[in-house]
Design a protein that fits this description.
Shape: globular
Helix content: 40-55%
Oligomer: single chain
Distance between the termini: 41 Å
CATH architecture of the largest domain: 3-Layer(aba) Sandwich
CATH topology of the largest domain: Aspartate Aminotransferase, domain 2
Strand content: 15-25%
Bound molecules: pyridoxal-5'-phosphate
Structural class: alpha/beta
Number of domains: 2
Length: 393
């Protein structure tokens, strides 16, 4: 689908639709009157094919206990193989309502209190919380930041793993918020380090379909699946197709011992082994019929990002915009214009924007803001206008 057609079909107003992003502003930011560019869902209507399938179910009018159809698994398996060269077997797939839920579960399944878990910061803040709220020890290894382009500091990463006897690494691939799509060589080095130190990798690949530059490589397939038994892959159609509210995510485990523990935990402790029928129907429809829509989204994201980048480079040349290889979350370092402790005052107080602040993602994110660009071009233009005008004052 081209960008114009996408805009015509999928642009939509979300205020007063019970959305966290728009209707939850007061709760999160203390005021309603903000242009919302924070939490990661899209201001776009989902593929019409998904709506049709859900409509059919609603019109039938019965919402009793539902079977999970083989075609749901087939759709996901085919998608992973065709889009990512990832061969997933049905028996390796488990359900979780969300990727974050799965991370919390796995922290409990694979470690005990006070065990160490490492993350690469700045990174999605629920990674921090999953460790801290479960009374595990959070070990932080900052990514190296070269003028907005982030990469791993492998020496620091391994030193901290060894010093703290780390049990799990939670990897974000593609990386929210710095927008990197990790290269094969980077993933291989990470896996080698984890392997020699007996560290299990939880690979959060929820953004894997939203790649604008480069190619996403599933962690588990590196070197012909050499490391797959020490990797647990988490993914979902929720970011790709804007279905987060449908609560349907995939956990992929090939290690039998881990699978046994996972099954025991989900069937006895949390007692959640499957989800709401709407989530299954939406996921299957999206994976089998959502491709044109996804093309349209990607073109729209690229257009929005290019506009943002060109505007900032022209008007505020000292702002550093990280290259957006993947995700729809632009990461901008504003510290040459705004001190970190003034960021909220200016961005929310003066520009009236709701964004994610860099320090939410760890100290390494200080001075930065994260802007969700999965919205209309008009909103992007308006947001840039407000920032440029305020800083130029
Ligand atoms: C890296 C990453 N993981 C997980 C999530 C949330 O996943 P879920 O809603 O499935 O818990 C997000 C949402 O922004 C994310 O960016």
């Amino acid at each position: 689908m081209n960008q114009k057609e996408f805009e015509e079909k999928c642009s939509i107003e979300r205020i007063n639709t019970n959305s966290v992003k728009w209707d939850g502003l007061k709760k999160k930011f203390g005021e309603d009157n903000l242009l919302s560019m924070w939490v990661a869902d899209m201001d776009f209507k989902v593929p019409q094919e998904v709506i049709n399938v859900l409509n059919k179910k609603i019109e039938h009018g019965v919402f009793g206990y539902a079977e999970i159809k083989d075609s749901y698994y087939d759709a996901f398996i085919k998608w992973e193989e065709e889009k990512h060269n990832y061969r997933v077997k049905k028996e390796s797939i488990r359900y979780s309502p969300g990727v974050v839920s799965a991370i919390y579960w796995l922290v409990n399944i694979l470690t005990k209190e006070n065990d160490s878990i490492i993350i690469s910061t700045p990174v999605y803040y629920p990674f921090h919380n999953a460790v801290k709220e479960n009374n595990r020890k959070l070990i932080i290894s900052d990514l190296k930041n070269n003028n907005g382009y982030y990469s791993f500091d492998f020496i620091d990463f391994e030193r901290k793993i060894v010093e703290n006897n780390v049990k799990i690494y939670i990897l974000c691939s593609p990386h929210n918020p710095v927008g990197r799509v990790w290269k094969e060589s980077e993933l291989r080095t990470i896996l080698e380090i984890c392997k020699r130190n007996n560290v299990i990798v939880i690979s959060d690949e929820i953004h894997h379909d939203l790649v604008l530059e480069g190619k996403h490589i599933p962690t588990a397939i590196i070197d012909n699946y050499k490391y797959e038994d020490m990797v647990i892959t988490l993914t979902a159609p929720s970011k790709t197709f804007n279905l987060a509210g449908c609560k349907n995510s995939f956990v992929i485990i090939t290690n039998n011992e881990i699978m046994e523990k996972f099954d025991k935990y989900t069937s006895t402790v949390v007692r959640v082994t499957n989800g709401n029928e709407f989530g299954y129907l939406a996921a299957e429809a999206a994976y089998t019929q959502g491709d044109r829509w996804l093309n349209g989204v990607k073109k729209t994201l690229k257009q929005n990002f290019d506009y943002m980048k060109e505007t900032l480079e022209r008007e505020l040349p000292l702002a550093k915009i990280s290259p957006l290889e993947g995700t729809y979350l632009a990461w901008i370092n504003m510290e040459n214009y705004i001190q970190n402790d003034e960021l909220e005052n200016i961005i929310q107080g003066k520009c009236k924007l709701a964004v994610d602040y860099g320090h939410w993602f760890g100290d390494a994110g200080q001075g930065c803001i994260r802007i969700n660009i999965a919205t209309s071009k008009d909103n992007i233009i308006e947001a840039m206008d407000r920032i440029v005008k305020e800083i130029k004052k």
